[in-house]
Amino acid sequence: MGCIPRVVGVLLLGNLFVVPTVSWSQAARVSVGIANTLAGDTVDIPIYLSAPETVKVGSVVHTISFPKKLLSLTRAQVGPTEEQSLAEVKTKITDASDNADLSVLEVTVSSKAPLRPGILAYLRFKISIAAREGEIPLKIVDTKAATESGEPVQLTRGRDGVIGIYDTVEAMPAVGCFFFTH
User: What pLDDT sits at residue 84?
Assistant: First the structure.
């Protein structure tokens, strides 16, 4: 048997372009939670932050879209992990520019101290009585995060949310702890 050489790298003579990569251990992620309910009810959907200890996040701007005929935002509240750090939450709702059936919700969570991983905010939605059994998507449009000094924070794509609509309470699946379902 002969020796078969292996190529382990490529050396470029001339311009060298370096593309930075981010490992999971260096990046933060902001995701939307899930919930099950009945048409006509209200539901709290969490927005949560996953970040390693080395990443310090001072603010998050998270933008999601949802069907405006089926959902209306009634309240946004700071999550329990942020109450101690004096965080505040602000929301802004606009119509989607590319789809007349969607609303776009921008949620801004900011704090004077670093935001802690966990639930950043709860979004309370009123479900239309016209909603039918099935799923209502809460799609992530964009997410930006910054340190306390305003420097951008590297993010990986978070998970979209969903609201499951059921005709009866008995038809709803029993869900345990939220954190174990993700």
Answer: 56
Tokens of 59: 């603010």
Using the predicted structure, report yes or no on whether residue 2 has a pLDDT greater than 50. no
For the chain, give the mean pLDDT: 83
The strand pairing partners of 28, in sequence order, are 155
**Calpha distance 104→67 (Å, rounded):** 9
3-state DSSP assignment of residue 41: coil
DSSP state of 13: S
Class of domain 28-181: mainly beta
Cα four-point dihedral sign 63, 67, 71, 72: positive
CA 89 to chain centre: 14
Per residue in 9-27, pLDDT (tens digit) is 333 333 333 333 334 456 8
3-state helix, strand, coil in the chain (%, to 5): 5, 50, 45
Residues 66 and 60: their CA atoms lie apart, in Å, by 19
Q: Are 101 and 131 in contact (CB under 8 A)?
A: no
Closest CA to 137 of 47, 70, 75: 70
What is the residue extent of each domain of the chain? 28-181
Cα–Cα distance measured from residue 150 to residue 87, given in angstroms and rounded to the nearest whole number = 16
Dihedral, 33, 35, 40, 44 alpha carbons, nearest 10 = -50
Q: Which of 109, 116, 93 is nearest to 60 (CA)?
A: 109
